[in-house]
Sequence to fold (71 residues):
Amino acid sequence: MEPHAKATPTPPLVSVPLQRPQPQPQPPAGHTTSTAERGSFCLAVCTCGWTGPARRSRDLARRDAARHTVE
Ligand SMILES: [Zn+2]
Fold:
């Protein structure tokens, strides 16, 4: 009979690098525009949060978006 020995093997300590998930609410540089329909109107929207004025035609909204991307 052996005496009660607490021989608990300890695993080697592995240094885990602290990784913090960094949320990126802002999109990368550049503007990606698209058109959105609101009722009977159409307006240009951008990934930066910009929205153009409501237009009656999608073509005008696209023109607003194109004007926004060059600014
Ligand atoms: Zn934009």
Summary: The pocket of zinc ion is lined by residues 31, 46, 48, 50, 68 (CB under 6 Å).
